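We treat protein structure as text, and this decision shapes the records that our systems exchange. The tokens are whole numbers drawn from a learned vocabulary of local backbone shapes. Below, we set out a record of this kind in full and without editing:
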Amino acid sequence: MNENLSDTTNLDLSLNNTDEQVEDLNNENKEVKKQNQIKSRERLRIVDKFGRAYATGRRKTSVSRLWLKEGTGKFIVNDKPLESYFTRETHRNEALMAFRYAIGKFDIMSTVKGGGISGQAGAFSMALSRAIINFNPEFYQDLRNAGLCTRDSRIKERRKVGHRGKARKKPQYSKR
């Protein structure tokens, strides 16, 4: 009988120890899971047989398809040089924002469709940042912190029935 009683006290003590050990194991498991997630998030270099990285970018209703490869720094957008396609300085700055975080000389060939010049510049910028990440994944964190990896999903709201020409413009209210 005494042996049974001593076994239960040992079990109680071992349960207390296991609670602390379980907490330690949970903490260790969380750390291991975080490390595994980081490893699984590691990005691979994605290039074709010609050494080009491809990416697609979207902004408003514009879509940009972009090919990036190491080269001399030649930028071609819809068969035109970048400076003649994006004539405004603000559009060129927005389009080339990703190069502030990338190192190296690249040749870029891109096709841009839909929307206006501002949306096309945003789509080009998104495609460029994604292509840089595909070409060299080391730049991912810098581009991510700069907000260049997140798609801007804002688009024009549709016109509603009974509104005066715009999505939210309503007729003037008259009390009588």
Observations:
- The first helix runs from residue 2 to 41.
